[in-house]
Amino acid sequence: QRFRGRSTVRVRLCDAGVEHVSIYLLETEKTKTIEEDRRLHPDRYLSDDAQAELWLEMGDLLAARGFGHYEISNWARPGREARHNVKYWLRTPTLGLGVSSHELWAGRRRANVSNLDQYLAALEAGHRPVALDQAVGAAEAAREEIFLGLRLSAGVPAERIATFVVASQDVRLWNDYEGWLAEGILERRDGRVRFTERGFLVSNEVLSRFV
């Protein structure tokens, strides 16, 4: 009874004129307060399997209404994808300006401090207020291209990911990779490797193997 009318809600969302939709599964374990509430009141929460089925149902509905599933948790009408987010998954060179900003520029990753007072003090002293500044070598760049690129529905070039897995000399990673393809978590299509719709549901487990 708790979710009576959910189909109507989803249809109304699609018909409301929105051009971009983000859908996330609830991860109660990330906060002690919510996790404790779930333990005390399990009737308030869907099971993981129920969440997964609803996520897939919503994806099917969005696809039928003209939305493309372009990133793990994001759907958009053609041309309305979030360019700000996509540039990170494609490793587009980006300058970071301001408190807490991050950048990928000239082969380095940098992050500015998140404390405003520290940020201003560094500027007044003539220093860049960085909290992180590290070089990104070729091996790290290849790794990032895979675990960031796989977030996108377009996936990554099949040759690139196969080369990386072989070069890692990690037999377990190769076996995992072949297993993901055999089980339909990943798929090869048009020279690229990408997550299937159900594969996106376990994407964190897969991506963590490349981090």
Task: Write a concise synopsis of the structure shown.
The chain has 211 residues and is of the alpha+beta class. The protein contains ten helices and nine strands.
Describe the structure.
It is globular and about 55 Å long. A three-stranded antiparallel beta sheet has the order 1-3-2, covered by helices on one side. By secondary structure, the protein is of the alpha+beta class. It has helices at residues 6-15, 32-40, 48-64, 83-89, 116-124, 138-149, 158-167, 171-182, 197-200, 203-207, and strands spanning 20-22, 68-71, 74-76, 102-105, 108-112, 130-135, 156-157, 186-189, 192-195. Strand 2 (68-71) and strand 3 (74-76) form a beta hairpin. The protein is built from ten helices and nine strands.
Radius of gyration: 21 Å
Class by SSE composition: alpha+beta
| Terminal residue distance | 42 Å
- Number-wise, the strands total 9
Q: Strand-and-helix sequence, N→C?
A: HEHHEEHEEHEHEHHEEHH
Unreliable segments (pLDDT under 50, ≥5 consecutive)? 1-5
Helical content class? 40-55%
Number of helices: 10
How does the overall form come out from the CA principal axes?
Answer: globular
Strand content: 15-25%
Strand order of the largest sheet: 1-3-2
> Averaging pLDDT over every residue, what do you get?
91
Sheet having the most strands? 3 strands, antiparallel
